Amino acid sequence: MSDSDNLRLMRSGAWLHAIAPDIAAELLRAEELCFRLNALPPSQREERETIVRQLFGHAGHSPTLHSPFHCDFGTQISVGDCFVGNFNLTILDEAPVIIGDHVFIGPDVGIYTVTHALLPDQRNAGIMRSRPVKIGNDVWIGGHATILPGVTIGDGAVIGAASVVTHDIPPGVLAAGNPCRILRPITEADRVKLG
């Protein structure tokens, strides 16, 4: 199997032996870029954004990514305009992670596309598969939330802190818990009155 075949198989969602030189090289590339990003002070915004653009498959206008940040590949991550990823965001992007415009992600959030074999001998041999995660526009994910493989979160949804999102969340709802469940729709009654 060629190098590109291993990566293509991994990204397809099929079960595979993921211990392979091409996959290891891509993991190392991302780890080096994350290390460089996390070593830069926040005041070096331009340099930080340059690394984010090298790391991610796509980054829209004005991405903000607070350190520390960790990912597996980076090239599978796409973020839209005005993305904010708070401290200690971890994205395991063996499959695509597509994040829309104006998405706020709180601190200590984990977004995971990978799952490993349950039997120890297979897990130890590197057998795994991945499923994509999609987060729509105008989503807010509260701190310490966990987004599991294959999940889609609809536009305008809010995910409460410490939630474990195991299934799709529709647009325009407040959802929270472990497992995450829909609490109610978000309506005009939620508008904050200023002054």
Give an account of the 3D structure.
It is a single chain. The chain is α/β, with parallel strands linked by helices. It is 23% helix and 28% strand. It is built from 4 helices and 20 strands. It has helices at 3-12, 21-39, 45-55, 120-124, and strands spanning 16-17, 58-59, 64-65, 69-71, 77-79, 84-85, 89-92, 97-99, 104-105, 110-112, 114-116, 127-130, 133-135, 140-141, 146-147, 152-153, 158-159, 164-165, 173-176, 181-185. The strands form 4 sheets. The protein has a 7-stranded mixed beta sheet. The chain has a 5-stranded parallel beta sheet with strand order 2-5-8-13-16, with helices on one face. Helix 2 runs antiparallel to helix 3 (45-55).
Short description:
By secondary structure, this protein is an alpha/beta fold.
Which tags fit this structure?
single chain; 195 residues; alpha/beta; five-stranded parallel β-sheet; 20 strands; globular
Strand order of the largest sheet: 3-6-9-14-17-19-20
Continuous helix count: 4
Structural class: alpha/beta
Tertiary shape: globular
Alpha carbon gap, first and last residue:
64 Å
Assembly category = single chain
Strand segment count:
20
Question: What is the rounded Rg?
Answer: 17 Å
H/E series? HEHHEEEEEEEEEEHEEEEEEEEE
Low-confidence stretches: none
**How much helix, percentage-wise, in residues?**
10-25%
Proportion of strand residues: 25-35%
Global mean pLDDT: 96
